[in-house]
Amino acid sequence: MPSQQARSRCGSKAMLALPILATVILAGFLIFGISNGIRNLGGAQRDNTGWLYAQLEVDYLKLERALAGVGTGNAGAIDQLRRRFDVFYSRIRIAERRQGSDLDTPDIGKVRQMLDDMTPLIDRDDAALVASLPTFARQMDAIAALPRMIALDSITQTAAIAEAERERIVRLVKILAAAIMLVTAGLMLLTVCLARQTRTLRTANHDARDKQLRLETTLRASLDAVVVVDAHGIIHDYNGSASQIFGYTHDEAVGRDFVDLTIPPHLRDDQRGVLARFRQTDQTRIAETGRREYEMMDRDGRIFPVEISVSIARSETGPLFVSYVRDITEKRQKEEDILKARDAALDAYREKSRFFAMMSHEMRTPLNGVMAALQLLRNSPLDGEQRRFLQAALTSGDILLDHIDDVLAIERSEVEDQDRPRASCDLSELTFHIHQMMEPLASASGIDFGLERQGLDDRLFDIDGRALRQVLVNLISNAIKFAPGRQITLRASYLPADDGEGLARFEVIDTGDGIAAGDIDKIFDDFVSLDSRYERRTGGTGLGLGIARRLVRNMGGDIGCQSAPGTGARFHFQVPARAVAPDAADRPDRAAAPLPAAGPFDLLVVDDNAINRDLLEAMLVGLGHRVSCAAGGRQAIECAAVKVFDAILMDISMPEVNGMQATQAIRSADGPNRATPIIPVTAHALSGERQEFVKAGMTGFIRKPIDMTGLASTLQQIIEPDAANRPAPPPNAGLGEDCLIDPAQWEQLTELLPHDTLSERIATIIRQVDTDLPLMMTAPCPEDLRSKAHEMAGMCGMFGALRLHALLSSVQEACRTGHAAWAERLLEHLPATWEETRDAWRAKLD
User: Fold this and answer.
1) pLDDT tens profile 769-823
2) How many CB atoms lie within 10 A of CB 506?
């Protein structure tokens, strides 16, 4: 087929080139004709012809003058007459020879005849010639008018010939122009064909490069020892790397038994059993399972650890096992060295963890005492101004607690997208309370603190109010520090958009000393304070503006500053905000709605973690549904091929076949669940990942830890046709971030499971985490750490471990986005958090 295509392309090019070649040849002939015509039109021969005919009259006049001279008696006149007669006669003969198809002057013949008659007279002697002069004169008079007529006729005919030649040249030029246009069109068409051919060649070159890269990859893989063995264990091929590892040459190894040659004696019986089972059942538990560690033996009898990967290549002569073997003796030694270094690092880590825990406790303990005293003071009789000051102190205390959390966990705010919760917030009320809270501090510094609001209209907005409050308080606090005795203004406004997602804009303006242009870019860096003098007028760690910038960017906005020395400073930022109708706003004091009535449904639960799978099954059975379970993506594909389900609840991160791959396989197969809703169930997913779920064919979303109300609502909205028109239940409210166990979820667990069963499963989780936690703390690579964190987060989250689940999810996200240092710092908090969670579970069970 490729040769036929090549011949077709060559034939097309030939068919296109032949007309172009013919046209080029025609153009050559035309150019030759044009050049020849131009040469003839302006050449010396044509000019000489005109001059010749015009000279006839001149020669005749000279002959006539010579004749007159004879009558004067001049001795030389007779000779002059004969010379002029000869010249005139020669001129007539030349002109007569020029006669032809171009020029036709019949009078030349008459003149010639007359001259022939006069020739005998000229040839006489002088006396006879003189005697015949009257006859000569009469004959001359007879042809007197003919030379002028001959000259005029020749000029007229020459002009006509030149005009005809010019017209012929014009025709040739037009034909040449048409030929040139035809050649140009042909060349353009040929250029298009060549461009297409170039693209085809470029694609072929790209494919060739891809094949070359794959070949190079294969060659790099062959740097491992490659041993090809048949189903009986006989070696068929053996590369150079295998010779270096095992010590046998190619000729020594080929044809010998692989087991006797490379397997240690204590593993030979097991290996022969594996080959025997494969010959009987055509199934193997070693091949096509990825890399695994094993022990092998070299020529000297040295037993050494290896990584081995086995693939099956089936041919007409029978199956062949292609084994890739790598000696990992040096790797094992390095692992032992790393373990020793890890043990030393763990000791230092524990000291560091104790230090941070102690510092957190030491800071929180006196602050909690202050907050408790302020709470008691609020119950005592106070006037209005005192209550305003007390409220400002309480609010400041809450903010200080948040700041302590931010300083101790600042790595969390370094992530670009934390998927921070957004809830309805009254920006008008928020800015008013911030002004009321900060106004006493401003007054104490002699500052006039103003508030300007525009477009807020006491509406609710979908925005992160906690982060927004922290940003504004940081900016206002800085303004109070650096503008004593001046003026500060807080401006807040809202700019709506046609798509409903408007912009909330904020400005904090002061009339202080201002900031130099070279310092503006530095003020948002961590631990940077422009007041670096020894007597520092202001306090602080220099983290405020850095945290503010992170929070603003996490909300989808950006923050900036405009300032100059002596003119004050204007800090400004804007974040996306969508106005929310009052009926749709989240209200914490709403009563929880009952579980929506739906189903019963036939559901398939897919999760590789048995504990998560059992708990989700219990939740769904408690809601009245019929549940089938699959322990992984491959089993889910098999179940979906034989039974119809109303929905499939699919875990995402699973070994071998993950949730997205299983979904695509179910969607592409012609099975009974090709159109069944497949709902992703995962511990953590950002907006970009959810878009990938949708592209894979999934519907909706269920986040771990799972809430039964949200679970029932999601199933109802996705499965029931009219569920979209029903109001969704409000989310659970009132759960602080520092809560160890989710009360609502624990209550659901206690209602769903008997106490003994719940105690048994909690004990199982505790044993598993106690076993897996040290392994996770020493995971050799980020991918292993991410996998273990995901598994542990889903398992613990299902049983309401809020803080532990959030910490593990952050570790997982840090590994996924490549922030290895951040993940290591988060791991430092994991042992203490696990101990607190474990004690909280046991306390609730007791």
Assistant:
1) 888 888 888 877 777 788 788 788 877 877 888 788 878 877 877 787 676 777 7
2) 22
Instruction: Please tell me whether residues 425 and 543 are part of one structural domain.
Output: yes
Q: 């046609």: which residue's tokens? A: 498
Residues 190 and 237 in one domain: no
**What pLDDT digit, counting tens, does each position of 130-144 carry?**
777 888 888 788 787
Residue 30: phi and psi, rounded to 5, are -65, -45
Rg (Cα) of the chain, in Å, rounded? Answer: 53
* Mean pLDDT computed over 86-106: 73
- Same domain? 213 vs 240: no
Asked, for residue 438, whether it belongs to a domain, the answer is yes
CATH of the domain at 811: 1.20.120
Residue 808 lies in a domain: yes
Exposure string for 528-554, b = 16+ CB within 10 A, e = fewer: ebeeeeeeeeeeeeebbbbbbbbbbbb
Domain span at residue 55 reads: 1-221
> Interior CA angle at 312 toward 310 and 294, to 5°?
15
Cβ atoms of 427 and 504 closer than 8 Å: yes
Domain total for the chain? 5
CA distances from 109 to 97, 103, 104, 122 (A): 11, 13, 11, 20
**DSSP of 306-354:** EEEEEEEEEETTEEEEEEEEEE-HHHHHHHHHHHHHHHHHHHHHHHHHH
Looking from the CA of 680 toward its CB, the CA atoms found within 13 Å total 28
Do 270 and 417 fall into the same domain?
A: no
Do 247 and 277 lie in one domain? The reply is: yes
The fraction of the chain above a pLDDT of 70, given in percent, is 75
Find the angle CA(293)-CA(296)-CA(300) to the nearest 5 degrees: 150
Band (pLDDT 50/70/90 cuts) for residue 579 is confident
Which single residue is written with the structure tokens 């510092």? 359
What pLDDT does residue 648 have? Answer: 95
CATH number at 407 reads: 3.30.565.10
Give the integer Cα–Cα distance in Å for 36 and 34: 5
Residue 412 and residue 547 share a domain: yes
**CATH number reported for the structural domain that contains residue 685 in this entry:** 3.40.50.2300
Residues 409 and 548 in one domain: yes
